[in-house]
Amino acid sequence: MATILSMPKWGLAMKTGLVVAWLKRPGEAVRQGEPVVEIESEKATNEVDAPASGTLRWIEVPEGEKAPVGAALAVIAAAGEELSDEQVAALLREDAEIKRQRAAQAGHAGAATATPTGASRTARTPAVAGGRVSASPAARRLAQELSVDLAAVTGTGPGGMIGREDVLRAAEEGQAAAGESEECTVSVNGIATHCLLAGPTNARHVVFIHGLGGSLATWALNLSAFAGKFRLCALDLAGAGDSDKPVTDYSVAALANFLERFLDALGPEWQRTSLVGHSLGGAVALAFAGQHPERVERLVLVDSAGLGTEIDGETLDLVSSVPTPEHIRAELTRFFADPTMVQQSLVAQIQQQRTQPGAYEALLATKDAAFGGGQQHYDLRATLAGLSQPVLAIWGEADGVIPVAHAEAARQAANGHVEILAHCGHCPHIERSEAFNRAVMAFLDEA
Amino acid sequence: MAIAIRQLTYAQAINEALRIEMRRDPRVILLGEDVAGGATVTGFEEDDAWGGVLGVTKGLVNEFGRDRILDTPITEAGFVGASVGAAATGLRPVVELMFVDFFGVCWDMIFDQGAKLRYMFGGKARCPLVIRTMIGAGMGAAGQHSGCHYSVFTHMPGIKTVIPSTPADAKGLLAAAIRDDDLVVFFENKMLYGLSGEVPEGEYVIPLGKADIKREGSDITIVAISRMVQQALAAADMLAADGISVEIVDPRTLSPLDEETILNSVAKTHRLVIVDEDNPRCSAATDIAALAADKAFTELDTPIKLVTAPHTPVPFSPPLEQFYIPSPERIVATVQELMG
């Protein structure tokens, strides 16, 4: 039986991937586990292994093209299996239909359509005939016991009938999906605010706030790690990412107010939460904590603004320049100690965001409210010093945007901690994502 | 229990069971066409008597004499009726109905007399009778000497039906049948007479109503009847090469039927195939399928499949006769269809 190789999903925020290079040509033999294609996501480039042995029969997505997570990339024919072009087309149609049904089942507009167990899925027939699901009695009983909706299960039994194995697999995938993200849009005083929710609802709550010119996609390498242990929300601030971009006040104080209303809109369970803020998002989190100390359990400031006056003026100039790929690449290069961290897909993603209607204006307004003349307008060190809850300042040692010395301000807080990551620039959550995840999770998890 | 295991054929095992039970109980007698060697022939007691059309009762007349091994005329209604009467009045006859296909001639004696005695007399009358009869296609014996028909007998209340598939089962089940106080029909598949297998020596009794797992497996249950157990075992070997693990349940008796063993196996494998050489309408196979559908419905992961003879008499043409009998290949194909 032929096998479909699909776009993998690396991290909660990954929506699409770029096919950088096919390592095998059509007609070439592939072994299961052998790298077949190089895929670049927003933050990483990786090889994807063949899910089955056989012959690479068909490449659906050529090099240089993007495809959404879960989309079919190629068809691998089993050894000795002859597939006509019509059969390949039929397999791909079937695969798309199965994924479409599964996505519809997931029920979240724009939710990830990934196959949660990995990058591959063997082509199978949907078990719905004449409106009634074809399932064995044993499968029906098991589905009831495991609360699996048979309409969303693919049958592999005789005639495509759903069997026990199919239900068990769907249940496993469902559990995996429970650990997946849920995207939603929350109205905050009329501002449609895009956010991503993940993790067990009975866990400690954590909110991730991106920095200037960023979006929740900045947390792509972090959210899956945190979602195993925390109920998390990453949002696109007003004026950024996929949230509305009205002409309004984008000052740190205004964004802190926005954060308050956003959390109110999100639900009562977000009344008290820990905050993780990067750069300008750190300043927003800190300002919010200063105004509503009772609502903040723990505070993580990542290469945060608001803890000193200095900031790299050149970076700010690049942020406010016309969003061409060259400018964005130059800007992003200043964010990393290792310039190879700047991937083409990251540049493309940021350009796409900044060229949305109103995005550039909102970015300029946000920047001008917070910074100017190579200086930060907000000094929140007194606020920080007044906080009694645990605070962690985590910083890249080689931050070229906001000096690492600013991290020391956290020591003025009653319960402040400082963590400096070597070989790392302004974005430790990307450049040293594993070390960052470990340190921040340990901090948030302290009793 | 020092039972030495040695090899006997299915026919020898039956012969041994008869001999042991006749030694054990003087009320046990044998009747039938040529069971001694011919009613009018003299001198067989000294020589090697023929002992039935295929020699199963060979040699018994030498030990037990013509008073207990009775050659009968070709009058099934007469000698089966006489056996019912003898059973009701104190003997424990074992009567041979040469081919089961002849049951129509003596059916009244069996189902309307022998099978109903105990019920109609409130338990005061008994019919401890065993009817041994040959079943099965494969010998080129055509439509009137090749049927199975145990389903017809199983359908009738008051009759116990035994369908041994191995030499050891034949011995143990025949002993139990002779010791049973009810009418038991013991179906001997003529194609199994030459089959050798380990058979315990001495008295050996297998209780009626106890199925036997002939092969343990985890993927699919095959309930196979009589010779079909051997066909299923051959199929299971072929399927094992494909990585399919087959469990084979031999009911050994159809009435009473060991429902528990069958249902437990279905609950374990979630798949059921029934292999039966009898005709498929109102048959043992459909009965077992109905049992699983009724009592193990939510255990079933695939449709219940039947591999049976077609709904025809047994054909004489050798190729058609082979086509008629469920083959290991047909069993393999059916299992593969279910396993996907």
Which geometry of chain B do the CA atoms define? Answer: globular
What's the total count of β strands of chain A?
A: 21
In percent, how much strand structure appears in the residues of chain A?
A: 15-25%
**Structural class computed from helices and strand pairing of chain A:** alpha+beta
Strand arrangement across the biggest beta sheet of chain B: 3-2-4-5-7-6-12
Kindly report the average pLDDT value of chain A: 85
Largest interface: chains, residues each: A-B, 13 and 11 residues
Short précis:
The complex is a heterodimer of chains A (447) and B (340). Chain A has 447 residues and is an alpha+beta fold.
Outline the fold blueprint.
The complex is a heterodimer of chains A (447) and B (340).
Chain A: E1 3-6, E2 16-22, E3 29-30, E4 35-40, E5 45-49, E6 54-59, E7 66-68, E8 72-77, H1 85-106, E9 120-122, E10 128-129, E11 132-133, H2 137-146, H3 164-178, E12 182-188, E13 191-198, E14 205-209, H4 223-227, E15 231-235, H5 252-266, E16 273-278, H6 280-291, E17 296-302, H7 313-320, H8 325-333, H9 344-354, H10 359-370, E18 371-372, E19 375-376, H11 381-385, E20 391-396, E21 416-421, H12 428-431, H13 433-445
Parallel strand pairs in A: 14-15, 14-16, 16-17, 17-20, 20-21
Antiparallel strand pairs in A: 1-8, 1-9, 2-4, 2-7, 3-6, 4-5, 6-8, 10-11, 12-13, 13-15, 18-19
Helix pairs in contact in A: 2-3, 5-6, 7-8, 8-9
Chain B: E1 5-9, H1 10-24, E2 28-32, H2 60-64, E3 69-71, H3 76-88, E4 92-99, H4 103-113, H5 117-120, E5 130-135, H6 150-155, E6 159-162, H7 167-179, E7 183-189, E8 196-200, E9 212-215, E10 220-224, H8 228-240, E11 246-250, E12 253-255, H9 259-269, E13 272-276, H10 284-295, E14 305-308, H11 318-324, H12 328-339
Parallel strand pairs in B: 2-3, 2-4, 4-5, 5-7, 6-7, 10-11, 10-13, 13-14
Antiparallel strand pairs in B: 1-8, 6-12, 9-11
Helix pairs in contact in B: 1-7, 3-4, 8-12, 9-10
